[in-house]
Every structure is written in structure tokens, then in C-alpha cells.
């Protein structure tokens, strides 16, 4: 068997197009332009790349982008004051503080200072609680993207066995909540899980969010299963730096029913879902219907 390749790049382009269509109608019919504020503290090179990409795609879908770049030695009070201003600014519907923050800043404190209704990353404690109790939340972008791909592929996930490898607050835990919300039977595996290959072998759906290059092998995968590879790892291969996932692609693709490649799978979905979340936040703030197919 050779797996169907899940084209996250094309799917993300479609999500952005759907966002852009709704943004245009919001502007024409309501005179509202959704706005996303991104806050970057310091000069972490990877964060700079992400923030630039977010700003560019925000503008491309017709939204307003507000970028706030602060020096690495910014103190907590200054950052909290900026978040307070963004919370109060009616042009701003989404606020994202790029992580990681420099070590002297308390990320939990900073994230929890964001108005939960504008927390488009879905990391605020209120949104985590709302998601965990099955209420309307802002949902973290990467797992939301994975959910969209899975729903597109399977329609209903009800009763399917899903194994999520990884229990981070950013990916693993919210992914598990979303799959439960769609009535999958969910197992969350982590570094202390006994006999991981055997656990993975039970899964109809495997979501790998581990941060270990090519750890999940084809022999672990149940024939026909769907494999969602969240991992982004840079490794040296024959003197060249290449990007690989947490799944050993070639061996897994030989047994899986469908698989996301790295790059071009989950990666492009993350920013697309950030734009979708900003649109959703804007619609909720204005008492308008939420965009269809772009929420959990
Ligand atoms: P974290 O490092 O926060 O979490 C990794 C998880 O994997 C932990 O729960 C850890 O377990 C578990 N783990 C580590 N080693 C093993 C092992 N040998 N067996 C089983 N489980 C293990 O990572 P993130 O969740 O933030 O990210 C995971 C991956 O996804 C990374 O490659 C990251 O780059 C990528 N990523 C991609 C995004 C995208 O846009 N596509 C967005 C965010 C992340 P324990 O809790 O026991 O330590």
C-alpha cells in the first residue's frame, strides 16, 4: 500500500481563500476589517521568520496587521502595558505574543494578560478551560489545523482510535481535547509511555508531536491508518540541512492510508488557522455568525 499524501499546503491556501472571502464581505457589508496584533520581544531568528510570515499572510487575506517589536531587555510592566492597550483597541481582534519570550519574562503571566476573546493562539487559561469542558473557545492553531485535515479526510472521527504522541500545552493536550470533542477514542502517549510501538499500532489516527526526528517508524503503524506528523526537525543529511518530521516518512508512507509530508503538511496549516481564528474572534466580537468550517 502507498499512502495518500495529505496536501497541507493546498489545504492551507484554501483556508486562506475562504478567510479572504469572508473578510471582504465583512468590509463591504459591515465596514469592519479584522485586525491581528503580533508582539515580538527580542531577536530570536526563527521567531522573526514566523512573525514576518504571519504579518505578510495577514495582509494578503485583507486583514490589518499590527506588528510590535520590542527589545530583548523589555521589562514585564512595559509588555503588560502594551497588551493592555491592544486589549482595549477596537481595531485589534486578535493578539499573539510570539513565544518563546526572553527568560526574564513570565510567559504564563503575559499570555494570561491577553483578553481571552482576542487570544488567537488559544493559550490563555480561560480558553484552555473552555476547550477542556467542551465550550466555545479560541483553539490553538496547530491542533486546529490537524483537526481540519482529519475532518476533511474522514468526515466523522466518531469512534476512531486516535493516538497523540506528545502532551505539550501547545500541541498534544489541545489535540487530544479536539479529538475527544469529535468523539474519537483518544490515547495520549509521552516519554514515559510503555511500549509505544504497540500503543501506536492500535491507532486509526496517529498524531506525532514529539520533536524527535523520524522517531515513529513504519513498523509501528497499523496498515491503512492516518498519520499526522506535526514535527519540524532540522537535521544534517550528507552535509546538507534538511527538514524532517517526527515520523520516518518513507517507511510510514508504505503502510499508512494517508500521511502528511514534512514540509508541506501540518506546517502551512498553522498560520492559516491563526488567520481563521482572528476572523472568528472578529465575528464573535461583533455578534456576527462565525465562519463556517473554520472553527472547532
Ligand atoms: P514539546 O517538546 O513541548 O513536547 C514534546 C512531547 O513529546 C512531550 O510531551 C514529551 O513527553 C514527548 N516525548 C519526547 N520524547 C518522547 C519519546 N521518546 N517517546 C514518546 N514521547 C516523547 O514539543 P511541542 O509539542 O511544542 O512540539 C512537538 C513537535 O512539533 C516539534 O517538532 C515542534 O517543532 C513541532 N511543532 C510544529 C508546529 C507546526 O506549526 N507544524 C507548531 C508547534 C510545534 P514528556 O511530556 O513526557 O516529556
Question: Briefly, what is this?
Answer:
The chain contains ten helices and eleven strands. By secondary structure, the chain is an alpha/beta fold. It has two domains: 30-117, Rossmann fold (3-Layer(aba) Sandwich); 141-267, 3-Layer(aba) Sandwich (Rossmann fold), CATH 3.40.50.
Number of helix segments?
Answer: 10
Shape: globular
Oligomer: single chain
The H/E string reads EHEHEHEHHHEHEHEEEEHEH
Main sheet? 6 strands, parallel
CATH architecture field of the largest domain: 3-Layer(aba) Sandwich
Please give the CATH class of the largest domain.
Answer: Alpha Beta
Distance between the termini: 32 Å
- Hey, roughly how much beta strand do the residues contain? 15-25%
Report the CATH topology name of the largest domain.
Rossmann fold
Query: C-alpha Rg, in Å?
Result: 19 Å
Going by CATH, the homologous superfamily of the largest domain would be NAD(P)-binding Rossmann-like Domain
- If strands are numbered along the chain, what order do they take across the biggest sheet? 1-11-8-7-5-6
Derived structural class: alpha/beta
* Count of β-strands: 11
How much helicity do the residues have? 40-55%
* Small molecules in complex: NADPH dihydro-nicotinamide-adenine-dinucleotide phosphate
Unreliable stretches: none
Domain count, please report it: 2
The average pLDDT score comes to: 98
